[in-house]
Amino acid sequence: MLWTLLRRHLRPYRGHVLAVVVLQLVAILATLYLPSLNADIIDNGVATGDTGYIWRVGGLMLAVAMVQVVAAIAAVWFGARASMGIGRDIRRSIYTRVDRFSTEEMGRFGAATLITRGTNDVQQIQMLVLMTLNMMVMVPIMSIGGIVMAIQEDPGLSWLVWVSVPVLLVIVLLLVRRLMPLFQRMQNNIDDINGVMREQIMGIRVVRAFVREKHEAQRFTGANATLTDTSVRIGRLFVIMGPAITIVLHLATVAVLWFGGQRVDAGLVQVGSLTAFMQYLLQILMAVMMGTFMFMMFPRALIAARRVVEVLDTAPSMAEAMDPSPLPADAADAEQAAVAMTTGAEPAAGSADHGVSVEFRDVTFAYPGADAPVLDGVSFTAPAGQTTAIIGSTGSGKSTLIHLVPRLYDATDGQVLIDGVPVTELSRAALSRAVGLVPQKPYLFSGTIGENLRFGDPEARDDQLWDALDTAQATEFVAERTTGTGDQARTGLESGVSQGGTNVSGGQRQRLCIARTLAARPRVYVFDDSFSALDVTTDAKVRAGLAEYTQGATTLIVAQRISTITGADQILVLEEGRIVGRGTHEELLESSETYREIVDSQITVEEPV
After folding, report:
1. CA–CA dist 383, 359 (Å, integer)
2. Which residues contact 269 (CB under 8 A, 6 or more apart)?
C-alpha cells in the first residue's frame, strides 16, 4: 500500500530524489574519509612530531568536512522539498476524491476519519518520506562503507562489528513487532477522539440545553484516556529503545578500547588506526540506529498509507457520464445567444425564465443495507414553469425524493429526467446550472455574505444579489449588519460570516441560503423544507416574492406547513415511499384522506389554510 501510494506521487519529484542521492553519497564518502585522515595525522604527524604534516592533512580534513556539511545541508533541503510536495499532493488527491464522494460514501467513512486521513495520516507518510530521503543512501552506504573501512584499519577487531550490529538489529525488530498493532490502534483512537470532538462542537447548543456537559465531558475523557493509554504504551517501547541502543554503543566502545588496547600494546595496530576503527564502529552503529528510527516510523506510516489508499481507491458510487448529454434548453439558449451576438439584439432573459420539466419514471430508492426501499415505484412529472409540492408524514421519503433531482443520490431503479434527459447522463456542471437546491439544514461558509451568495454564480453582480436578498426577505438585516470594529468594520454584503453561519440566527441563515440559490438563477428550484425556520408572516412574504422571481422556472417544494403549498400547481402526497394522492389543494381536500388528515392537524385560528 505504501509503495503504491508513493509511486503515484513521487514521479514529479524524481529530480529532487536524484539530487538527494548524489548529495548524500558525497556527504557519506566525506564522512567515511575523515576518520582515515584523523588516523593519518595521529600516526604520521602527532607520533613523529611533524607539525607541517599535521597542518597539511588538517587543512585537507577541514576542506572535506566543509564538503560534507554543504552536501548534507543541500540533501536535506531537496529531501524536505520533495517530502512536503508529496504530502501536499496526497492531501490534494484525498480532497479531490472526497469532493466527488456521494452521500453514501460520506456516510460510510464519516467526517471524522476523513479529516484524520487527510491530515494526521498524510503527515505520517510525509515524515517517513523525509526520513527515508535523508537516510536511504546514508544508512546502507555508511554501514557497508564503515565495515569495509573498519576492517581495513584493523581486521583483528572486525568480530566486534559482526557481534554488535546483529544485536542492535534484533532489538529493533522485536520493538517494531510490538509497535505495529499499537500504531493501528492509535490511528483508530485519533479517529474516535476527532469524532467525539466534532459531534460535541456541532451539538454544543443541544448539550447545553439538556445540561449534559458532564456526560459529554466523560465521553471525551474516555476517548482521550484511550488515546493517551495507547500513546503511553508506544512511548514506553520508544523509551526502552534509547537505553538499549546506548548500551550496545557503550559496550562496543569499551570492547574496542579493551581489546584494541591489548593489540596496540602487542604492536599489532597503531594508535591512530585503533582510533579510526572506533570511529568507524560508532558510525556503523549510528547508521543502524538512524535506520532504526526510520523503521520505527515505518509501521505507523504503513498503516496510515492503507487508510489513505482506502479513500483514494474508493470509486464514487455516482460516476459522471463519460459522454454527457446537453440539456435541450441549454442548446436553445446557446442558439439564442449566438443570434443575439450576430444581430446585435438584447440577449434573452436569465435561465430562470426558461424552466424545464422534471420527470420521475417508476423510481425506486433504497439506502445501502436497508431492509425496505424508501421510495417505491414513484412516477410523476413536474411540468416546466410550474410549482410541484411534496408533502407527507415524517419518514415518508420526501427529502430522499427531492435529493434525487440534483443527484445527491442515484435511483436504485427507474429514472429521473430533466427536460427529457436522465440526470445520470448530464455532466455535474450542467446539472448544477440546471438545479438549485436549498437544503433542509441551511449551511453558510466562512467569508462574507457576498461570497456566500455568489457560491452558485461567482459572476453575479451586487444588484442581482440584492434582488435575491429582497425576494428572500433578507435585505433589511443584511443592509444593517456590521461586523468588526474601527478600520476592520464591514457592512452589508461585505459583513463577515463565521463557519456554518453560526453568527446569524437560524431564520437569517435560512433566508441567506434561499437568496444564494436565487442568485444562481437555475432552471429548477428545489426547496427541501426550506421555510421551516421562518415565521408565518415571513413565510408568506417569501412565497409571494418567489412567485414573481421564479416565474417561468420549475419549482419543487417539500414542506411541512400546508399554508406553504396551497398555491402549488400540483401537490403530491407521499406515504411510505408511494404517491397516495396528487392534485391541487382543493382537489386533494376532496379526494385524499391522508391530505385531509394533514390539513386538519394544522388548522388553527391564527393560521387558517
Report:
1. 8
2. 153, 154, 156, 157, 260, 263, 277
Q: Return the bridge partners of 361, or none.
A: 415
The C-alpha cell of 471 is what? 425576494
Nearest Cα to Cα of residue 405 among 393, 419, 392: 419
Residue 464 pLDDT level (bands cut at 50, 70, 90): very high
CB 564 within 8 A of CB 531: yes
Average pLDDT on 90-100 reads: 89
> How many other C-beta atoms lie within 10 A of the C-beta of residue 34?
17
Name beta bridge partners: 583.
571
What is the tens place of the pLDDT at every residue in 489-548? 888 889 988 888 888 888 889 999 999 999 999 999 999 888 877 888 888 888 888 888
| Cβ within 8 Å of residue 25, ≥6 positions away | 137, 141
Cα 179 to Cα 172: distance, rounded to the nearest angstrom: 10
- For residue 364 the three cell numbers come to 425506486
Least confident of 94-98, 195-199, 326-330, 573-577: 326-330
Q: What is the residue type of 31? A: T
CA-to-CA distance for 352 and 522, rounded, in angstroms? 5
CA nearest to 28, candidates 118, 188, 149, 152 = 149
Percentage of the chain lying above the pLDDT 70 cut: 92
| Helix 159-202, helix 271-312: angle, nearest 10 | 30
Q: How far is CA 177 from CA 199, 347, 565, in A?
A: 35, 71, 65
Q: Which residue has the higher pLDDT, 188 or 578?
A: 578
Helices (H), 136-268: 138-153, 159-202, 204-209, 213-265
- C-alpha cell, 37: 585522515
Contact 456, 406 (CB under 8 A): no
pTM, whole model, 2 decimals?
0.70
CA angle 580, 585, 591 (to 5 degrees): 45
Query: Residue 130's closest CA among 78, 189, 54?
Result: 78
For residue 561, the 8-state DSSP code is -
